[in-house]
Amino acid sequence: MVISTLERVFGNRNALVDVLAVFFGIGSWIGINSLWVQLPLLVNVLPEFWNLASYLVIIIQIANIGPLAYTLTQKYCPIADNIIIYALLAIGVISGGLIPFFYDITVYFLSTDRSLVFFIFTFCFALVGCTSSVLFMPYFGRFRGIYLITYLIGEGLSGLVPSILGLIQGVGGNAQCKVIDDDIVPFYPLPRFSTQTFFLIIFSLLVASLLAFILLDRLKSVRDEYANVKILNGNNYQYDDTSMTSDPAPKEIESVDLSTINYRCLLVYIGILCMFVNAIVPSIMPFSTLPYGNVTYHLAITLSLMANPIACFIAMFVKKNSVNHIFIISIIFVPFLSYAITTAVLSPAPPLTENTFGEFLVITSWTLVIGLASYIRLKITTMFRLRGGKSLVWIGIWTQIGSFVGSIISFTLTNYTGIFVSFQPC
């Protein structure tokens, strides 16, 4: 049974397309994810401190101008989608090459120091990521169905790779209180290597992603792996019935009975899910985890980012794909999300702060929240694939709608209310 499962998942495919798909997927969100991984270090050196996460969330949502511009362009002045992808990946590469040297430059603005240069890089990375939601994944939908999951694994690795680098880098340890000039101030031990070195490694991966797409777009052997689709314009394409005969994966997807009501409900659910996971969760994570220590915050971020590709990999071996299956996973998801949010609301004194089990519990909760949400998103995306490129675009649109609404809510709550209170180590 195990052998047959492996043959079903890995057989009848072009390994080169898989490799290129993974590297292409890595380029989607690796810029933004690298910023999140460095956040435990950046909150100690940039002037926004704990509120830095909420600024990142709101800037990421401002970058939704990218998907909007793409949608309007394709409607009124169509541009080949591969050209737009080239431009986006080039923006990522340029930003990745500059941020290692300028990320910590601050500007005095509106009566205080601001990390405006860092915010510009954040916007550029976010522009790539947000637009990829309505462009990269639908572009890959024209390939045979077995490669869509490979692309999504690559997208998940855009979080896993920075996370592994972050674990190797470390944060140096929790804050130590020292007396300097009669003042007690926190001192943070140095990590194994600097933030600059970290960003330089990310830059090399952004270059690799651009090269991977060039090969995906140009090699004939890669184009041979297209499904039998009729490409009307950009990502507006339709599957021919004959494409079902050579690709076993779509048959499983096609068997899912997705009514109009379920179709619309799943789109709304994607929006609500992304409202929490893409916006509210990242903004409040510092308030939930930093009271347990800087190391706990670091582990919560890195392990939760690792959970994304692991969930995608598990989904490759799970044939079950139905609305009921998604509902059951969602029931498991809600308690962990509730606990994670509760610890943030109770900051600066969440439960079990002086207990190792408390650290384990909060890290586990955040990791499962991201992992289960990634699994649910992949299952819904897989169900939508055979309805054509437009359905995948709708997935991307609702993803960004939910994320935008969540960013406004989280930014307001963390910056203009007293609900979330920062923990002072000294």
Fold blueprint:
Layout: H1 2-10, H2 15-42, H3 52-62, H4 65-76, H5 81-102, E1 107-109, E2 112-114, H6 116-140, H7 146-169, E3 176-180, E4 183-187, H8 195-218, H9 220-223, E5 229-233, E6 236-239, H10 248-254, H11 260-289, H12 294-316, H13 323-345, H14 356-384, H15 389-416
Helix pairs in contact: 2-6, 2-7, 2-8, 2-12, 3-6, 3-11, 3-15, 4-6, 5-6, 5-8, 6-15, 7-12, 11-12, 11-13, 11-14, 11-15, 12-14, 13-14
What would you call the shape? globular
Radius of gyration: 22 Å
Instruction: Estimate the strand proportion.
Output: 5-15%
- Tell me the number of strands: 6
Structural class: mainly alpha
- Mean pLDDT comes to 79
> Biggest sheet, open or closed, and with what strands and sense?
2 strands, antiparallel
Low-confidence segments, given as residue ranges, are 242-255
The helix fraction, in percent, is: over 70%
Report the span from N to C terminus. 57 Å
Following the backbone from N to C, one meets helices and strands in this order, namely HHHHHEEHHEEHHEEHHHHHH
DSSP helix count? 15
Q: Please list the strands of the largest sheet in the order they lie side by side.
A: 1-2
